[in-house]
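Students often ask what a 'structure token' actually looks like in practice. Rather than answer in the abstract, let us consider Abasic site processing protein, a protein of 182 residues. Its sequence is given first.
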Amino acid sequence: MFGASVNPTNAGEEIYPGYPGLVLAGGDVRTMTWGFPLSLTGKSGQKLKPKPVNNARADKLDSFMWRYSFAERRCLIPMTAVAEAEGAKGGKTRTWISLPDQPVFTVAGIWRESDEWGPVYSMVMTEECIGMQGIHDRSPVIIAPNDRAQWQDGALEEARALCTPYGSAMHLDRTNEPWVRR
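Now compare that with the structural description of the same chain:
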């Protein structure tokens, strides 16, 4: 896949925050948990289960949480589609976004090792693109095939220059499937 060696994986067909997903990192396809663990503390000071922070805003990549991963550990997240919630609160449904000219495309990611879950990754998001207007105010940074090496191995400013809204056609599949399964 993408000229990388594939390690054994346990990623599912659909990936959710806090669950395993596939990334291309260091020339290998690897399984990592989606979301950097955010340590939480309860009202009485007890440690709570960490929350997965699954998206990193491109304009915040210099913040402490993301800085070292962006500088040292960029990855690509292969996908066939990404889901977003659409609709009124309490009645949101899934809208699947895919690229008609790329059955499998890549999104910018960053990764690190964590004490809580082992290797983890986060998807890099930027301003909404034309294809996602009205669905979400942010969109994934889609990395074109010719820019994959620049994202993974280029200088910081070269990688940062790729953090722009996607400008080509997208396919939207609006479903009646509830966003939250009860």
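One point worth highlighting: The mean pLDDT is 91. Ask yourself how you might have guessed this from the sequence alone, and why that guess would often be unreliable.
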